Amino acid sequence: MSVLRFQIRQPSGQIDQIFIESERVLIGSGAHCEIRLPLDQAAVEHCLVQVGPAGVFVQALAFQPPPTVNGIPFTQGPLPADAVLGVGQFQINVTRAEGVTNVGGIPGQATAKKKKGTGPIAIVAILALLGGGYMFFFMDEAADTDNAQHKPPELWGAPLVQCTQPQRDRAAAFALERYGVANSLRERRPFHVQDGIAAVPIYEISAACYKVAGDDASAAEALQAAKTLRQDITDDYRTHRVRLEHALQVEDLQTARKEVKTLLQFTEGKPGEYVTWLSNLDRSLKLKLGRPAS
Predict the structure, then answer these.
(1) What pTM value is reported for the model?
(2) 3-class SS at 66?
């Protein structure tokens, strides 16, 4: 198990040093995060730091405010030992620490907790204790755990750029009508994510038809709405996948079930082994939590 050293510079200038024994460290304001920052500085889960064969990598999980590496916003990538990870007004340096035995956190605004590891010996012990319950959790008779490794489906294809109304006057009316529909769907996104997903191509068609109608300003507005919504939903989609992975790793069944249900809403109607895996996992979690599978 790797030991990571976090040097955290607070907005006041105070520097804390924290050692965490783990291959994965969550940074955010949530109580379950290993590096916990104030609510006004970070989202519940803001960044995920992971150790891989090639070194330390970091992935952004939230973008309000956007996390940075050496002052540059990022989505994911390597985190060199001399790089500075910025979250809100906190500046964090992450390095691998070898030979450290006193692992723990330092009290203060930024706090940490040690993450329980599961090496080969621990896994064997757990399997013996649970009598195969571990395998039951991850799969039922129809589930294949390898499906967890398959690439999640894309929510959209390439942006739509062709208007279905070639005449200028009809294109203008159609663009206005489609823009109104897309706005209505976007407003319902918090209650049904599929409405938000459906709104994106409708905005794109609206933009294409505004272009045919010669209304470049409205076309740009509709296209920007499509791009912004695409990015927002893509970020949410990725965040929920990471949260599910983390919940399964720490065996937080309630959170895992919640994230599975959310991801099934994102992928509603999509084909593929990942969606099949989600459906099987949903049934397994219901059984594991003592609820009848439906």
Answers:
(1) 0.53
(2) coil
